[in-house]
Give the backbone structure.
Amino acid sequence: MKKKLKLKSKFIPVNIPKIFRQDKININKCLKQGWISSEGSFVKKFEKEFSKYINKKYGIAVSSGTAALDIALKSLNLNKGEEVIIPTFSIISTALCVIKLGLKPILIDVDLKNWNMNTEDILKKITKKTKAIIITHIYSFPVDMQKIIKVCRKKNIKIIEDAAEMIGQTYKNKRCGSFGDLSVFSFYANKHITTGEGGIVLTNEKKLYEKCKSLRNLCFGSGVNRFDHDDIGWNYRMTNIQAAMGCGQLKNISWIVKRKREIGSRYYSLFKFNNKIEILPKYNNYSKNIFWVFGVVLKKKVKLKKKYVMNELMKKNIQTRSFFCPMHKQKIFKKMNIFPKKKRYKNSEYLYSNGFYLPSGLSIKNSEIDYVANCLNNILK
Ligand SMILES: Cc1ncc(COP(=O)(O)O)c(C=O)c1O
């Protein structure tokens, strides 16, 4: 009884990252040596080690996953008005990189089997104007990409694979992030590997690598005058301190992936008898759920609203986070008239209306998982 009361008074955030001893040793090294900006050996080391882990040739470390998307897409040098296929159910960064470059985003609804882009729908939406597809793996499983990759190779459509949420995940036994012409990752604090803020672009193509490197660093002049710039770029550099942390984190990736699956499996078994929520399975025919976050969707028969349930959990000191608001529902894009007004993407809307995720960061304790699951089961009783 005493234990229960103690737990109730303790706030359980949706994510607490795991900081490793090696992260601190590496960061202290930077501080001692004074290599604190983007110059310094850890940036190159992290790029090399991370790209090797994913099985790509080149890595360009940047300041965020959003920056990685901006750079990756711009490096393809597409013409205004050309089409880029993206999920409607994703972080806004996916649509932003397309819109900022004057390209046309074509939205894809969710497949409720795995909460990812519906691959049949992708194939239907490919036209002569399609120049790239951003394949974004969401929450649990990778997108079932085999067919799409084949079609893209044939039609010379570039793939940007967004594996921000899938560090350490595999698709048909190959690492997520190893499939795209360009692959992007985020190292925000809720990702499997964190550098506080950060991201990376990976590629096997030297030309794309050189272009991304230049775009990350203001496109400084490659000719005699460094300050006569080659193109419109950004300062999206990652600092040596961030990369130092990334190297420490990467050393622990096997443990991280194992722990994420343990957290997910624990929730999974605690919700086994709850018929009011939908949760994704632990396995599908091409992958194993990595449980980046543990998502739950209130079934249609549940009379309670998502907001109410999330509030009730908050009253018990449990923080939750809503699922993504689909791109076609974003007020800013409505104002800008980006997407056709009446077009519906009903699966994404359904997930957004009824889905949220539970605390599932790497530092969560098993007793906290039990408490969260117990509270949710009671609220839905
Ligand atoms: C799939 C995906 N891509 C990109 C991003 C953007 O990453 P960042 O927050 O580092 O800009 C996120 C952020 O959560 C994400 O989930």
